[in-house]
From TrEMBL:
Single biological process term from Gene Ontology: DNA repair
Official protein name in the record: MGMT family protein
InterPro entries, sorted: ATL_DNA_repair, MethylDNA_cys_MeTrfase_DNA-bd, MethylDNA_cys_MeTrfase_DNAb, WH-like_DNA-bd_sf
One Pfam family named in its UniProt record: DNA_binding_1
GO molecular function, one term: catalytic activity
Length: 120
DNA sequence: GTTCTGACGAACA
DNA sequence: GTGTTCGCCAGAA
């Protein structure tokens, strides 16, 4: 099983106008403790051109040190999709209550099935 | 083999 | 609400 392939697929399946957390992606990958690996993988660019701007840290804060040209690039992209991004002391922040990607049980299961099928 | 590092997270104070 | 500490696990050196 390839953790990176899974992460990539999940990133690509984050709905427009929503954001997901690293922990969430790790969870969907079947590795609940691997939130760091998600970020690490994305940073390394091993996932290719995935919409990584839809991935934020657990509290909804844009991690910032993303693989984007400028720091506020992520913010621009998110706002273009209708996600509100606020300025806080910690940096740019999204409201997970409203814009967080709520994964249903069905979605989670379909991911697992997909992984099984593709043997990744 | 070991050690360090890291787009992080949860549990604390 | 904030700041700190600790745990996590895959890569890199």
């Amino acid at each position: 099983m390839d953790f990176y392939e899974r992460a990539k697929m999940i990133c690509e399946n984050i709905p427009r106008g929503r954001v997901a957390t690293y922990g969430q992606i790790a969870l969907l990958c079947g590795k609940p403790r691997n939130a760091r690996q998600v970020g690490y993988a994305l940073n390394k660019g091993r996932l290719g051109d995935v919409p990584a701007y839809r991935v934020v840290s657990g509290s909804g804060v844009l991690s910032g040190a993303a693989a984007f040209e400028t720091y506020d690039m992520q913010k621009i992209l998110l706002e273009a999709e209708g996600v509100e991004v606020k300025r806080t002391k910690k940096g740019w922040k999204t409201d997970l209550k409203r814009f967080g990607w709520r994964t249903t049980l069905e979605e989670a299961e379909s991911f697992q099935e997909m992984f099984q099928k593709k043997n990744i």
